[in-house]
Hints:
Number of strands: 10
Number of helices: 8
Mean pLDDT: 88
Order of helices and strands: HHHEEEEEHEEHHEEHEH
Distance between the termini: 37 Å
Largest sheet: 6 strands, mixed
Helix content: 25-40%
Strand content: 15-25%
Amino acid sequence: MKGKVSLVIGLLGFIVSVFVNESDIKSTVFKVSLGFVLGAIIDFIVFMIENRKNWKLFKTKFIKWNKPIRVTVAYLFRIEVNGRYALIKRHKKDRIGYQPIGGAYKYFKEENRELFNELGIEPCNYVKRDSVTKDDLRIRINKRKNLIKFLKWFESRKNREVDPWREFYEELVYPGLLPPEKFSHVKYAFIGSHKEIESPSPVFPIDEFRYADIYELRPDSDAQKQAIEDLINSQEIIFATPNEIRNGATEDGKTILPHTFKILPK
Length: 266
């Protein structure tokens, strides 16, 4: 905002200087105006440096800036055994296949009510919500220009889920695929984040922005390592090679969902 105000004042000053006849005053007005414009340019450069990791998203400030966008923010586990990656079967009817363990982050509804109102954020119901998914970060931002502000909030880690344990527990421990006595806790390493904009979306009637944090599981005991290896005997789990993941199917014809490639090393 400061940069915008400086730019407007500077441009107005240039216009005024055109109509001033006194050379000394004209020169002074021009120099002051130039200072305001240079200040705006410096603010813009600082903004670009501070947001360098979001340069690809910066165009959302100008391209379709007033259009809505669907946003999904999730975390995925990279679980590797002997060069293959553990994937779990997805049973929802909209897309059936195998995908990484993980899911959408949760946000704290009451704590974020004022901020989300300000940014024009509401739940996205293109995929039906229920009592389990009601506070998932699967949202609609009514004006795409607010996407970067939303990301700043998310990356501040305030008033949202920050630990990926919940989905690990719900998908592997709670249903008994992993023994709870051996997985009262897990260790994991943050690998990085994957961001992409789908324009147009191949699935929904508005553009999509997808954000995924990738965590690598680090079993810290022989018992945990063995239990992970034993998942190969489960009907819900497959272990796929990197090439199978890139190809979207295993050699025996099992479907691997498209977003699975995100867990692969870059």
